[in-house]
Structures are given as structure tokens and as C-alpha cells.
Amino acid sequence: MHHPSRRQSLLILSGLGAAAVAGGAYLLESHGSSNQPYDPHEGAPPERPIAPPTPIPGGEDVNWRPSAFGFKPSNDHVQQIKGYASATSVGRGESIDFHVTVSPAQKFRIKIFRLGQTSADRASDLVATSPELAGVTQDLPQVVAPTRTVLAPWSASWRLDVPADWASGLYMATFENEAKFRSVTPFVVRDDHNGADLLVVLPFTTYQAYNMYPWDEKLGSSLYHAWTPTGQFGSTDICSTRVSFDRPYVGDGIPTYFDLDYAFVSWVEAQPYTVSYASGIDLHAGRVDPTKYKALVFSGHDEYWSSNMRSTLEYGLDKGVSAAFMAANNLYWRIRMDASAGGVEHRQVTCYKERKDPGARSPQSRTNLWRLTGEPEQSVLGAMYRSVVTDAKPQPLVVDSADHWFWKGTGVRNGERIPNLVAGEADQVWPGQDGPDVTYLAVSPFTGNGKADKPTKMPAHTVLYQRDSGAWVFNAGTFYWNHGLSTPGFADSRIQAATRNLLNRMTTRR
Description:
alpha/beta; 2 domains; 7-stranded mixed sheet; 27 strands; globular; 9 helices
């Protein structure tokens, strides 16, 4: 779900304008770094044999998918079976509720899967199943003015008491009715007591920002779009300014861009690191002490950040904890986390964007772009969002700094093209914006939105830098990096090896 119109305006707002785009040429000078990137105009080196990617043991994980085992995905018009969790994460030994509606009323079950490499022969495990439950058809969603917040204040249908010995991880609840319809919702199980090499942080605030539930031509709304009174999709001037976790995700329940996180989790669970998990809301709520981990990994498209979330990250970086951003367009919108109408903390995401923010206590605290409130994300990430990728198909990642330790053992050369990795959205080092001195690991041409949304050739930057504390910060700068780790048809041994080099360096430095 792309949204070029609201981002094209950033060329003016951020003062980039012609400084970033000049006649469609790639601007490779004045990056604020003495390490100038490879010029893609020089062409690619000759092709060479490439080792096949390492397969994920157990094969592709399909057990939890809405269409597995003969099930039919539920939809938002009929709501054959839809549900949501009472929290985005739950600690080991704690409880989490699931709120479910079934139409027509009938019996149903809830199953819980842990995603990722859980055993030698499977890429997911069924870890819990509810008893047979008496399903009821709960009330239609409500729309709360003036923020156009969609709520489904349903009664709880089943409580899961999470065993104290469950592994921290990314879990999926499946809701299955007698008529063989199925929908899902993800959640995280935390380990609040033990540290690990890596803490993988799942971008639940971004999942909710994109959530258009219900997709019914009437009530559904996200922080991007809403239905008009005549049932037309795409109205940005009447979309939500606050969205709630007290509702299912749209359609079959898989959040927008969840595939990016799933691709990373599928790969990292098969690697020799100790891994723990959290949601971004845990960073906000103070449930994460970053110093218990050697690196924080932001596994997907993590666009929506509160001040608390950013403060937790920067505290960790200052203490020498590394950070890897495995996609692009992270830390873009400043948000507030608000309580639900019932007083449950951190259940609503507020972001007014270009509209007047009545809750802002100062111009710097308004829920708008971080770069417009004096704290550009490039100062943390090394590069920041530039454009959607408008090419008809994914573009190759073009290697730079091939002699850097990041690429050690991959055999790559400057200008080598790794196919199908630049897609979705892309980051770039912006001239004139605060930022560290970075190493360019890839400089990858793509077609994006230039001035007046004119298709324009520009480079995506994959960058790395080290902070004074010793912490490393990696920014993939493209959505499809993780597909290069584990997704069939995209997985590439060079990306797998480079990512291992990165995580090895991050986890063995201290």
C-alpha cells in the first residue's frame, strides 16, 4: 500500500528540492561523508557463479496461514470469524485475551503457533489449542469522532495463560470456525528477565497505522485512508488521526508488511544467536532494558515511533548496544501512545500528520515528521526515507565498499548486482541533514518520485556506521533485504553471508 502523494511534499518541506534530483541523474557527490559511494554508471563487473542460498530447515512455514489445511480466509464484509489480542505482547507466565466474533454464531477454536525455526524438521510449532468455544456474533465496529477511530469493543472469548517456560518469540493466533473459515492475529511473547544476543523488535505501531479494518466500503479507516460516504476508497483528508489495537487487522488478519518481519524471523531462528522478542510498544512502555542485549534488530518497516521509543533506542546506542534496521523508512512519523476508552494503556496510536494536533504541547512535540520537529531520523539511522520504489519489478542491490568486513566471504565486487532486493520504499543519505559519517555498502539505482511526483532515477543507500560508544548501526535502505535471507525465489547466499557478518560483529564486540 503505497502513498506517494503525501511523501512528495517532503521534497519541499525538507528543502531537498533540486539538490537531490538534477535532470534525473544520480547525485553521488556531497553526501556528508569522505567515503564516496561507487558510481553505478561505471557498469557491473562480469557475472560469476554464485553459491546457492542456505535453505531454511523445515521448509516454508504454512501451518498458520489463513488458507492452510483447506481453510478459507475470512473477510470483513461477512466477518465469518475475526479476532484480536488484548495486547501486542505478553510476558512469560502472564495472560493474554482474545476477542472474537463469529458470523453466523457457531463453535470455533483458537490455535497458537510459534513462528520461526522451532525444531529440526518444522518452521513453526503448534503450541496451544483452546477448547471448543461457543462463538457469538459481536457488535459491528464503532467509529469515534473526531479522530475517526475504529473500535471493536468485543467481549473476551478465551484467555491464554502463557506458560513460564515458553520461548520468547513471534506467535500467531488462528481463529477457526466450524464452517472452515480462518483468520489470524500476531503477538509477541517476551522474556522480561533474561538477556540475549539479539532483541528482535516487531513494528506493531506501523501494523496498526496501515490497518484499514473493516474493509467494508463504509467504516474502515487507517492513518492513510478512509471510505467516503459513497463508498470510495482513498480519501486522505478524512482518514483517522488515531487508530486502536482494539480491532482485528484487515482481511485475513495478516498485517501490512508482516512478510518483511516474517522473512527475518524465519532466517534468524536458524542461526546460532540467542534471540528474544518485543514489540515497539514495549520500548515505549519501559519494558525493554536495551543493555541486556548486544543488538536491537528492527526486523521490518518500522515507521511510527513515539518519543519514548526513540529515547529507549538512543539510550541503548549510547551504552554500546548496536542496532540493525532491516528494511527502510523507519522512525519517520512521531506518534503518541494513548490509553483505550477503558483506560488500558498504550492501546491507541495518535498521529495528526499535516493536520493541527490539539494534543501537542509545543511545536516540537506535534505528531508529525521527526525531520520537521528538529530531529531528523538520519541522525540515528545514517540515511532516511527518500521515495517509494515505482519500478514495475524489484531492482537489483548494487554492491559498494566490497572490501569492507561486511561483505567478507561473499566474493562480491563493487558494482555487482544482487537481484530483486530494491523494492517498496528506499532510504538515502540526504545532503544538508544532520547525520553521521557512513560507509556505503550498496548504492542501488531505482525509479522513484521526484519533483511533482515525476518518475526520477535516484539511488537507494545501504549504510553502516559506528558510534562513539562502539555501537554499530546498519540501515538496509530497502524493503526487500530480508527476502534475500529466506524467501523462496529471493534468498541469496551473498545477503545471507553479509547479514551473518553484521550480526557476528554486533554480538561479539562486547
